[in-house]
Amino acid sequence: MFAKAKIKYEALDLPDRMTLSDAEMETAARGFYEHVRKRHTVRDFSARPVPRRVIEDCIRAAGTAPSGANHQPWHFVAIANPDFKHQIRLAAEEEEKAFYAGGAGDEWLQALEPIGTTADKPHLDIAPWLIVVFAQRWGQFDDGTRFKNYYVPESVGIACGVLLTALHTAGLVALTHTPNPMKFLNGMLGRPESEKPIMIIAVGHPAEDAKVPAVAKLKKPLEEILTVAE
Predict the structure, then answer these.
(1) ∠117-80-127 over CA atoms, to 5°?
(2) Phi (first) and psi of residue 63, to 5 degrees
(3) CA angle 148, 15, 149 (to 5 degrees)
(4) CA-CA distance, 102 to 90, in Å (whole number)?
(5) Distance (Å) of CA 205 to CA 47, 50, 141, 208
(6) Which SUPFAM superfamilies does the annotation name (predicted)?
(7) So what's the pLDDT on residue 84?
């Protein structure tokens, strides 16, 4: 993507400018809140297929996220192949068994109790798509030499937030899983050493009998998450 000979600053007039009145801004902000508050993390998936084009457009949206030095240090692998999904499930459950057997520590396991999770991950088989998110620790110029990526965790985290919002906007539900370790994903999916798998997102439609933990509906009020200095 990057060519050494073309690294220079060039100013462009702001494209896609939005000019809203205060009232329009308030309406838009409230409307977005009402939309995004209906997003739920779901573990019960339907087998109903999801068109590839929908996944592509959601990932395309994630690719618009801001990043350190605009290096865009992310790569997304969308998986529908049942064999690949099952291999990921088996590997994930192996790690989760050790986690729930005590590897996590009592405090962490107690914190997870109201969520109702276990080492079983059937959703990794059932969800029609798994999206594996890779963080790129370094990149390469067009001549093959390396360059450093900056603010990689922050940049990839923002892109994942955009992706989850895009999936919700498309009418889908998602469940995040953070693999630790899952280095085998690089080999399975043909990703280079410079990339580290940091998240697996199961994506699809909710099952007819899908449930969410009651505690998931408890969100901190605005006064606990906002301080205003005027």
Answers:
(1) 30
(2) -70, -10
(3) 5
(4) 19
(5) 8, 8, 40, 9
(6) FMN-dependent nitroreductase-like
(7) 95
125-159 in b/e form (b: 16+ CB < 10 A) is bbbbbbbbbbbbeebeeeeeeeeebeebeebbbbb
Does the predicted model carry a pTM greater than 0.85? yes
Structural domain boundaries of the chain?
40-210
C-alpha–C-alpha distance, residues 149 and 112, integer Å = 34
Check whether domain 40-210 has CATH 3.40.109.10, yes or no: yes
Six-digit token pair at 87? 């291999």
Give the full edge-to-edge strand order of the sheet including 129-136: 74-79, 129-136, 195-204, 173-177
CA distances from 14 to 11, 69, 183, 187 (A): 9, 18, 41, 41
Residue with tokens 């989760």: 96
Going by the DSSP 8-state scheme, the letter that residue 115 receives in this structure is G
- Count of beta carbons in the 10 Å neighbourhood of residue 112: 14
Residue 180: pLDDT band by 50, 70, 90 thresholds?
A: confident
Is the CB of residue 104 less than 8 Å from the CB of residue 65?
no
